[in-house]
Amino acid sequence: MIDSNNFNYTVINSSSVKYKELHNSLFKGAATSFDWINWYHKDIPSSLNIETVTYAAFDGDILIGIWSVEPKIMRYNDNIIKVGRCFAVGIHEDYRRLGLFVDLSKFAIESERLRGEFEYIIGFPQKGRSVIGGHLKAGWKHVQEIGIYSASQLENDPAFSLSNIEIVHDFNILDIPTNINGSLIESCQYKNIRWLQHPDLHYICLKHGNAYIVLKTYANFCHIVDLNGDKNDVLFLLKASKVLGNRHGWSEINVWCAENEFFVSEIKNAGFIEGANFGLPISMIAVKINASKPLVFNGCHFQMGAEEGY
């Protein structure tokens, strides 16, 4: 028998053994290491001089739920605001259908309001996941859909030869603006930590002219997790990625892209079409913390891998 009177909610150190064990039981494909936890929870947000906060639900001394919020900076309506990104949320399988997901979310949201750090907390769950309903019950609101586009005709086009692109070894050498309205502002230090210093994975980071693209490879396809720069150079990199896909024998390259995405024309002009065999669209949701109005985007650019952490 589970006694709900024994549940309590608090902040937990993500470096604890209990966090690692519960995280890996919830996200079985992640195989999270302590190196990853420290990298994602401490090293990445260190570029903003603030650590990720993780809220927890306990049954006595048993960790039964986790809820993390990563600090971000966003350009929104021509203002610079602080937002948090909710990730790695889940309830132990033995404690589901007890309302714990909603209760933990409400505790975390009220705690964030007391902290007063952010205007909003945002989330990017894949469309159709059951967690979306739990978030809405806890006070979150739907913001917009972010579709997924893919290219499966990966031709070897000599006009977009790989000899015309460079590998990025240090984002500090790139002079690319990060002030697109409706985008997350991420410094070169942040990009170096996130894309070049991942403890477990290797990302392909490429440059052409005044633009870059970051690719995450899987066994038989590739996902674009970051993209920015001059539009003509972005278009070149998108087409060059298809040449790279042809060389590696990928069956698909895909990317998350809203209809109000800043680079939507370039994505479509590069031959990407809506839908994918290896991925789902995203439902962007948000909850007000210090803000008085709902989050609404006329245009956006979420670096297309905003949920990407593993």
Give a structural overview:
This protein is 25% helix and 31% strand. A hairpin with a 2-residue loop joins β2 (53-59) and β3. The protein contains 7 helices and 14 strands. It has helices at 17-26, 34-43, 100-115, 131-137, 188-196, 231-248, 264-269, and strands at residues 7-11, 53-59, 62-76, 79-91, 120-123, 141-151, 166-167, 183-184, 204-208, 211-217, 221-229, 252-257, 273-274, 282-288. Strands 1, 2, 3, 4, 5, 6, 7, 8, 9, 10, 11, 12, 13 and 14 form a 14-stranded mixed β-sheet that branches. The longest helix has 18 residues, at 231-248. The model has no long low-confidence stretch (mean pLDDT 91). It is α+β, with helices and mostly antiparallel strands. It folds into 2 domains: 4-145 and 282-288, Aminopeptidase; 148-274, 3-Layer(aba) Sandwich (Aminopeptidase).
Low-confidence stretches: none
Count of DSSP-assigned helices: 7
Run of helices and strands: EHHEEEHEHEEEHEEEHEHEE
Shape: globular
Strands, count: 14
What class, by secondary structure content? alpha+beta
Question: Looking at this structure, what is the CATH superfamily of the largest domain?
Answer: Gcn5-related N-acetyltransferase (GNAT)
CATH topology category name of the largest domain: Aminopeptidase
- Our Rg estimate from Cα atoms comes to 20 Å
Q: Which architecture of the largest domain per CATH?
A: 3-Layer(aba) Sandwich
Mean pLDDT: 91
At the first level of CATH, the class of the largest domain is: Alpha Beta
What's the main sheet like? 14 strands, mixed
